[in-house]
C-alpha cells in the first residue's frame, strides 16, 4: 500500500484537493515537497490580492479615514470569526493582537493576579521554549515558583492549593501528541487554578472546543495552519466569565474604554477589547482574515480528516521504507492522539535534515534527533508526500 497508484488513489478521493489552487504556486523547480507548513504556511492568492487592495484603496485612497471606516474593528471582528470557525468560542472572547509571546505574557500575568495567595505556576519541560521562558520570567517578576512537569500527563501530581496557573500546549510541537484539553482543564480548575492553553500547533489543524471545555485562557499563532504569513499577529482568548476582572499588564490606548479621549488615566474597555495594547497591525491582519475565511470554506472537520489520513500515510511509508534504515516514528500512531505533523527520529537527523532541504524536501529539524514532517491539509497532497519520503529513503540510504 505504498505504491504511486495508491498515492494517486488517495489524491483522487481528496475532497480538499481543489484548495491547493487557492495558494500562490511554488515556483522553485528544485522543491520536491513543502512539508514545513506547521512552521510557516504557504501564501494565499487571496491574501496577495487583498494586500494590494488595502494598500491602494483603503490606505492609498481613504487614508486615515479607514481607521474609523473599518480598521479599528478588525481585531474583534476577525477574532470572532476565528472563534467561530476554529476555536469553538462564542463571540466576544477572542481577539487578534500582538505576537504569541506577548499574548501569553498578558494572559499569564492576568491569570496569576486572579489567584492571589497562590505562588506556583506549572508547565512542562517539553513545552515550546517561548512558553517555558515566559513562565520563568513571570515567576521571577512576581516572586512565584515554577513547578515542572516531565510530561503533560503528570499535571495531576503537581497541582494543588498553591497552583495559580498551568501553561500547556494543546499539541506538542515536537511529537505532535494531543493533550486532553477538556480533562486537564477540569482537573486544574477543580484544584482552584486556571488553565492557559497554547494552540499554535492545533488551530487550523484540528477542532478546538474552548467554550465546551470551560477553558480559561488560550493563545495561538496564525502563520502555521492558518497561512496568515510570516510574523502575522497572534490571537488570545479570554473566557467571558473572567472579563470583569481580567487585568492585562500592557495597558495601551487601544485597550482603553475611550480610545480617543486621551484621558489622564487608563480605564479598560469592556469585554475582550481590553486585551489590546497598541495600534493593530492592519496589513498583518489581512492574512489572518483570509486564512480564517478559507478554513471556514473548507471546514475544520474535513481538514482534520485529511490531516489524520496524511499522518497515517507518512507512518505507513516510514514503516516500509525508513524504519529499516534506522528511523523510528516519534509521534503517536493512534489517529486521535496525533496532531498535524509526524516526527521521525534518526541518530544523524541534524545532518540529514540539511541534506534533505538541499535536495528539495523542506522539512524541519528539532533537537536532538527529530525530523518533523509537516502536513498542511489544504496544501499537501499524498503523491507529494510519497515523493518526499522516497527522497528521504534515497538520501538516508
TrEMBL record:
Record's catalysed reaction(s): L-kynurenine + H2O = anthranilate + L-alanine + H(+); 3-hydroxy-L-kynurenine + H2O = 3-hydroxyanthranilate + L-alanine + H(+)
Requisite cofactors: pyridoxal 5'-phosphate
Signal sequence interval, chain numbering: none
A GO biological-process term: NAD+ biosynthetic process
GO molecular function: kynureninase activity; pyridoxal phosphate binding
Spans through the membrane: none
Coiled-coil ranges per UniProt: none
Keywords, ordered alphabetically: Antibiotic biosynthesis, Hydrolase, Pyridine nucleotide biosynthesis, Pyridoxal phosphate
Pfam families: KYNU_C
Pathway connected to this protein: Cofactor biosynthesis; NAD(+) biosynthesis; quinolinate from L-kynurenine: step 2/3; Amino-acid degradation; L-kynurenine degradation; L-alanine and anthranilate from L-kynurenine: step 1/1
The EC number(s) this enzyme carries: 3.7.1.3
This protein's GO CC annotations: cytoplasm
Role description: Catalyzes the cleavage of L-kynurenine (L-Kyn) and L-3-hydroxykynurenine (L-3OHKyn) into anthranilic acid (AA) and 3-hydroxyanthranilic acid (3-OHAA), respectively.
Family statement: Belongs to the kynureninase family.
Record PANTHER family: KYNURENINASE
Subunit structure and binding partners: Homodimer.
Protein name (Swiss-Prot/TrEMBL): Kynureninase
Organism: Amycolatopsis australiensis
